Amino acid sequence: VARKPTAVDLRLLSKVSKLYYEQKLTQQEIARRLHLSRPKVSRLLQRAQEAGLVQITVSSPMGGFADLEHQLEARFGLQEVVVVDVDHTTSRDMVARELGIAAADYLQRILQDGDIIGVTWGTTLHAMVNALRPYEAQDVHVVQLIGGLGAPEAEVHATTICRRIARLLNGKLTLIPAPGIVDSLATKQALLSDSHVQRAYERFAEITVAFVGIGVPTPESVVMRDGSIMREEQLDVVLAAGAVGDIGLRFFDANGQPIASALDDLVIGISLAQLQQIERVVGVAGGLEKQAAVCGALDSRLISVLITDHQLARVLVDCPANDAPPSTQFTPS
C-alpha cells in the first residue's frame, strides 16, 4: 500500500508538475535545477497524477506557495525557493524551528553521494540539525565555514553543528580549529599558518552545497547576546559603513556588496568571494526584520537557494532593484 504523501511531498510534487506542465521544462532540466535524478523526476510526475495534483491544470497543495516561490525564483534567478507557512505571532525560536525543519527536508532531498557540504552557524542551522534524520550517505564530507563563535558549549556553535551533521549523515568532517573572530591581524596570520586551518580553507573550493544563515547587525542579534563574539564598537563601525546583513560575519550593504572594515580582517572563515564560487548556496532566513539583509544577499547572487517564511517571501518580491550587475564578483579577503 502506497504511503500517504506528506505536506513536504505535496510541495515537491506541485513544484515539479508546474515546472513540467506550465513552464515546459524537460525532465532533464528539472532534474538539474532541483538536484534530482531524471528517473526520480519521472516518478514524481507520475505520483502527482496519482495524488490528483495534475488534472487540466496543476493544483497547489493546501497551504502551499508554489506561485510565490516561482515569482522569487524568476525575480532573482534562483535555483529554488522553499516558502514555509509560519505563524509570526510565535517567537523567533519557533520561526527558526519551522525553517530548520524545511532546511533539513531540503538537505535530505538533494543530498548525493560524494557531496561536500559547507556549513556556517546560528539558531536556524541549529534547528535544521535538530530536524535532520540519520541518513547513510556515501562519501559525504562536512566542512566548517567559519571558526567557532561564542561559548564552545553553545548549541549554535559552528563546531557543534558541523559535528552533528557529519554524525547524522555518516560523513567525514573538516573543522576550523580556531575562533571565528580574533583580536588582531597578527593572531589571524598565525592561525592561518596552522596546517589544520589551511586544510579547511583548501576544502572551500571543493564544496558542492553550502548551508548558511543570514544575520542582521542589531544589538539583539545572536552575535551581540553575550559580548563574546562582537563588541558594541565593532557593531557601530559596520553599521556606519552601511551594513544590513552578514553571512558568517562577512557583512554586506543593501546591494549585497561587502563592507570593508577592520573587523573583516579579523574573521577566520570563508569570504563572500569564495562563497560566490559555490554552485549551490542555501540561505535559510526568516522574519520581516531580515528583509534588507535577504534582499542584499539575493541581489548580489550570494545565495542560489532560499528557504524562508511566507511573510518575508511576500515582501522580498518587491525588493528594490540593485544597480550593480548580477555578475558582480567580490574581491577575496
What does this structure look like?
There is one protein chain. The chain has helices spanning 7-22, 27-34, 38-50, 66-76, 92-110, 123-131, 158-168, 185-192, 195-203, 232-240, 272-276, 291-299, 310-316; strands at 80-84, 116-119, 141-144, 172-174, 209-213, 245-247, 250-252, 280-284, 305-309. With 333 residues, the chain is an alpha/beta fold. The strands form 2 sheets. The protein has a 7-stranded parallel sheet with strand order 1-9-8-5-2-3-4, with helices on both faces. A two-stranded antiparallel ribbon has the order 6-7. A hairpin with a 2-residue loop joins strand 6 and strand 7 (250-252). Helix 2 (27-34) crosses helix 3 and helix 5 (92-110) packs across helix 6. The model is unreliable at 324-329 (pLDDT under 50).
Give the topology.
Layout (H helix, E strand, L loop, with lengths): L6 H16 L4 H8 L3 H13 L15 H11 L3 E5 L7 H19 L5 E4 L3 H9 L9 E4 L13 H11 L3 E3 L10 H8 L2 H9 L5 E5 L18 H9 L4 E3 L2 E3 L19 H5 L3 E5 L6 H9 L5 E5 H7 L17
